[in-house]
Amino acid sequence: MGNTDLVFTGTVTGVECTRRVPIPPSRPFLETFRANLKETFFPDDPLRQFKHEKCSRRLILGLQYFLPILQWAPTYSFNFFKSDLIAGITIASLAIPQGISYAKLANLPPILGLYSSFVPPLVYAMMGSSRDLAVGTVAVASLLIASMLGKEVSASKNPGLYLHLAFTATFFAGFFQAALGLLRLGFIVDFLSHATIVGFMGGAATVVCLQQLKGMLGLEHFTTATDLVSVMESVFSQTHQWRWESVVLGCSFLFFLLLTRFLSKRKPKFFWVSAAAPLTSVILGSLLVYLTHAENHGVQVIGYLKRGLNPPSATTLNFSSPYMMVALKTGIVTGIIALAEGIAVGRSFAMFKNYHIDGNKEMIAIGMMNIAGSLTSCYLTTGPFSRSAVNYNAGCKTAMSNVVMATAVMFTLLFLTPLFHYTPLVVLSSIIIAAMLGLIDYEAAIHLWQVDKVDFFVCLGAYLGVVFGSVEIGLVIAVAISILRVLLFVARPRTTVLGNIPNSMVYRRMDQYPVAQSVPGLFVLHIDAPIYFANASYLRERISRWIDEEEDKLKSKGETSLQYVILDLGAVSSIDTSGISMLEEVKKSVDRRGLQLVLANPGSEIMKKLDKSKVLETIGQEWIFLTVGEAVAACNFILHTCKPGAVTDSAGVDDNIV
């Protein structure tokens, strides 16, 4: 059986005993509560840097915590500025056409896309902790705003109210994001798993591409629904209104954009080719329309764009019923999606450059920039992956690249907006489709299928929900499946049989290690989760069934009958009163079978609660061991030297093993 025959020192009714598992000293409730609260909301211990510092120094550190620009600005160099200048101009060339395109996608005036690329980046440059995040509007949030607000207010029939609700939703989104960061509730965003985000983003990208068929085909009337069936019905019911001019122009620019992306991927040093392609498309498209007067032949153009900087919009926020609730709902949903994308993108690039960003500080920064944006005629912004990737590849060093981008957008607002009058909408549709195709990550979906089938179906559920239902339905399905999976893990924890690795004291899962051997007369069971009220009943029944199956197997093989049941509690990090009651019931059930219950490797919380509930006396502390190996050795020793049940703690237990 390997190295399991040990000699134990102690005086326990003729049998030597192993080391005792100690009961940890009790701690005051408030001290325990404070420690648990700290672990929940302050796992990174942000106040550590303030210890042993003078008041003036603490003030400076506090300002630097909320305004990271005060950390890097004093050491900012001209070499850094040159890199940030190049990166900022590069992302501005992408931000201008994307901003106009995404504003149209949200059914908002195109100029708002430029406004939203001016004020929010300046706020983030002061408060954000990521060096690589490039701030701006995103397609998915734009689609969500159009979808959720459009159900209550028509953007075409009541554009003023729709615009005011968009600002109000942005305010609520920013307030919600900042509140999550200040209250250290960032873990809520973690309920959007990687599989959920992949499926949701892929579905949203598909829906956005379908919506662009209106511009690509030159249609004037189009469905407001976002599901696949409604869009296809709208497209093919208007075949007589398709404009070949728009189709040719759109397909040509889409091919150009995809070609530049392909070249940039093949030759990473030419990243700027793909980054400049959208602005190049806008310029070429505008020149083509202007020279050929294509607007008179069915090609729709942007039209007049107001020159000037962002006008204030604080007085336009709508907090009155019945529209406040739809603005609140839209703000919370879009705020969570924007946070998930922005933080994920920031962490990805921080990992590449080997620095750390604080998720809660990022929430505060993103929230504050959206609050400021809602007061200055901007709608929801975050850190889109495409723009941030260009910023990273362009060699940015700090958040100053956002300031450079905002300056370029400011120059455009002051002097260049009339030049966009002849920009064809079909070019904007091509820019959006080209950007969205990159969000359909089929390789990640294949990887999920290969690694974890459940995660794949979470991803698939999110995708199908968005494509065949709506963006909201897809999000609800994805989050519901993810939460259901978490609940199933808690309510149905895994229990596995352990066996001995020959010539060792190691015990491992027998279904994973073919060489692992069972020990005659002993049954070792591993519980792989905390024990709570949600799974206590299941564990009681499952342990009983395991014992029944083991006894039936031994009877059928004519082997040594079962004498000991050893529960490995090493993975049970916590337990509640229902779990304690479950262990007591298992003890009684095992006793009725004429068997002995043994516990191995219980944690401090388990020992403390077993002691306070008096269940420790019921089980017997002499039947609780440090490791599975010691438990098996002791039981095996007793099994071969005396009758089971002869062990009592009448004379105490020594703490030494020979």
From TrEMBL:
<feature type="transmembrane region" description="Helical">
    <location>
        <begin position="191"/>
        <end position="210"/>
    </location>
</feature>
<dbReference type="InterPro" id="IPR001902">
    <property type="entry name" value="SLC26A/SulP_fam"/>
</dbReference>
<feature type="domain" description="STAS">
    <location>
        <begin position="512"/>
        <end position="635"/>
    </location>
</feature>
<feature type="transmembrane region" description="Helical">
    <location>
        <begin position="398"/>
        <end position="416"/>
    </location>
</feature>
<feature type="transmembrane region" description="Helical">
    <location>
        <begin position="323"/>
        <end position="344"/>
    </location>
</feature>
<dbReference type="GO" id="GO:0008271">
    <property type="term" value="F:secondary active sulfate transmembrane transporter activity"/>
</dbReference>
<feature type="transmembrane region" description="Helical">
    <location>
        <begin position="162"/>
        <end position="185"/>
    </location>
</feature>
<feature type="transmembrane region" description="Helical">
    <location>
        <begin position="242"/>
        <end position="263"/>
    </location>
</feature>
<feature type="transmembrane region" description="Helical">
    <location>
        <begin position="133"/>
        <end position="150"/>
    </location>
</feature>
<dbReference type="InterPro" id="IPR011547">
    <property type="entry name" value="SLC26A/SulP_dom"/>
</dbReference>
<feature type="transmembrane region" description="Helical">
    <location>
        <begin position="460"/>
        <end position="484"/>
    </location>
</feature>
<keyword id="KW-0812">Transmembrane</keyword>
<feature type="transmembrane region" description="Helical">
    <location>
        <begin position="423"/>
        <end position="440"/>
    </location>
</feature>
<feature type="transmembrane region" description="Helical">
    <location>
        <begin position="270"/>
        <end position="291"/>
    </location>
</feature>
<dbReference type="InterPro" id="IPR036513">
    <property type="entry name" value="STAS_dom_sf"/>
</dbReference>
<protein>
    <submittedName>
        <fullName>Sulfate transporter 3.1</fullName>
    </submittedName>
</protein>
<feature type="transmembrane region" description="Helical">
    <location>
        <begin position="364"/>
        <end position="386"/>
    </location>
</feature>
<dbReference type="InterPro" id="IPR002645">
    <property type="entry name" value="STAS_dom"/>
</dbReference>
<dbReference type="Pfam" id="PF00916">
    <property type="entry name" value="Sulfate_transp"/>
</dbReference>
<keyword id="KW-1133">Transmembrane helix</keyword>
<dbReference type="InterPro" id="IPR018045">
    <property type="entry name" value="S04_transporter_CS"/>
</dbReference>
<keyword id="KW-0472">Membrane</keyword>
<dbReference type="GO" id="GO:0016020">
    <property type="term" value="C:membrane"/>
</dbReference>
<keyword id="KW-0813">Transport</keyword>
<dbReference type="Pfam" id="PF01740">
    <property type="entry name" value="STAS"/>
</dbReference>
